[in-house]
Amino acid sequence: MRLRVRLLIAAACGACLTTSAIAQSGVPEPVQFQPAQPQPGSPPAGGSLPPVGAPFTQTAANPAPAVQPPTLNITPPPLHNSAPPPPAATVAPAPPPVAPAAPVPVGQSALAVKQTLPDAIIPGQPVVMEVTVSNGGTRPAENVVLTGWWTNGYDLAEASVVAQMVNGRKAWGLGALAAGETRTLKMKLAPQAGVAVAEFRSGFDATCSTATDTRAVKVLKPELHLQVVAAETAFVGHPVPLQLRIKNPTAVPVSSVVVRTTLADPLTHPKGNSLESELAVIPAGGTEVLPLDLTAVRAGDGRVKVRVVGANCEPVEAEVKLTAIEARVAVTMNGPKSLYRDWPATYEAVIENQGDQPIKAASFEVKLPPGFTDLRASDKPGYDAASHRIVWKFDALQPGEKKTVIWFGFAKQAEDLTTTGLAAVGGAPLKRAEWTTKNLGAESK
Q: How many domains does the chain divide into?
């Protein structure tokens, strides 16, 4: 009798490595199997395997005797007179061998699978075998799973690790294998009654999960904020000051910033109605302020549209509406024509809206002469000590409305006192007035 055993070994960590071996033998003798050392843990349900070094003992109720080869003294007849052998039971073909995979990269886990089988198998006897899985890589192999198949006609009777069915195959979970670690699975396959097997084939695949480190890191998204600061009212023929405030509120610098401004009639600029400015970078948390002075050439409603773009951020836009009106503001000032040094002096100014439109956010400032000290003033104005100025602010001047302000001080120097008054709206000057008081010097005794 000639029996042939083919061994298909497959191992993979994300891929499979396959090894095959073919063994042949003549008339078989009773075989003693040498299973590997059992793994720690409880023996599998349904019985136990023989200890290492002990011969396998049949555990069936009617053990089959060992087959002895008969002595044949009859000369066989010629081949053409030979009777055909009896037909064997039909056996379904075994699964095809698993193709080898690409080499495992250096620095990863690399699984290898090796089967240990008897040199020959006796019909009707169980097959005792071992499958060893080893990690020859430099990294641990996580969640190692061993799957196997074998020739139809044999059922799994015992295994040192409980098997499960995965995709129609037996599978064993072996857990984690450290680098260089080896684990052995022992099993016994029982033959199915009435099924003749001409060749026993088996194959095993070992797979593992790839080690993964998943983290979430916030991606900082740069952005820009835009604000256009301007008075609601512009005056024909007078400067219309604007401020473009571009802010970067994020922790990421924004580079290649481009500011595009479009003006609508009656607003104009010396460089045209389509303006463009470039900024190298706006630092994280920084703000850039761009002044923009326009002029209204006639009365009417005008618009200013600003668009700002920067690297890796969404464009931002802002639009403001300005109403241009004729400036009809009158300013008159009164004070003493002359005085002696160290004498007190009282001054008065009247600001009048002579137009037919309200004037909002108007102001009146007085530039005081040097040596005019000990100041007093009506209507609680602000005082700028560095420029020696007094400033009054008005919410609005209605058509025909007048505002009167008064201030008082002492002339401490011998020079003449020249006082300048300026009416403005939103920082845009509208009307100026001036008053000079002659200083008579020290008073005669």
A: 3
